[in-house]
Amino acid sequence: MLVHVGDDRSVKIDIGLATFLAAAAGAINAAGFHAMGFFSANMTGNVSSLSDFAALGQWTLASLLAGLLAAYIVGAFCSALLIEVGRRRNVHGIYAYSIISEGVLLAVLGTADLLLPGIHSGPILIVGLSFLMGLQNATTTRISNARVRTTHVSGMATDIGVELAVLLGGARDNDDRGVVRSRFALHLSTLGAFLVGGIVGVLAYIAMGSVLLLIIAAALLAVSVPEARRAQKLSRKTMF
């Protein structure tokens, strides 16, 4: 899932990556909202809320939402920078290392929330989660040539509507219809995984609190670490 890049990726690989990471993002986003009342991945909603609070002069809340937006952007920036440097230096598995970073940092946040009472009532946890959502979305965007976006539900819903219209009344050529059907399956799987992940995330957070973040972190590492090793093995084979 985290080895092949761009046009070398199949629809099956894209759907596997999108489903797994969208479910993780949906769980983090919904659990964060349940715990703190703010979204870590929904920047459209956050910017709208920022506008509302700024217009009403509620500067404390407006500042927090501005911080969430900034954290998301910085997370995307750090991921893209890591990938650019890694590609320039021919670091194989650089995309897997980005998800490894997400898993490690999520584990740190989850541990801090468990050991430091009341951290979830302040901005640290939700800002940290926003950073990680930006990091994850940038990684999937780069590795898939923007086909996979695991936190961008508005864009996915738009694409689903457009693709349905094309399938029902637009594309006549079988090849074109096949491409559109593939994109439709990808976006529908991503949206569904985000939704189901959100439901499970809220229920799990109610039951176990920030242990949920540790479980998601472990799942991210369980997938990304073997992918990084596989990328290294493939790179060694191509050298000989």
UniProtKB/TrEMBL annotation:
Record field: transmembrane: 15-39, 59-82, 94-112, 118-135, 184-205, 211-228
Matches recorded under InterPro entries: DUF1275
Keywords: Membrane, Transmembrane, Transmembrane helix
Translocase in keyword set: no
Protein's recorded name: Transmembrane protein
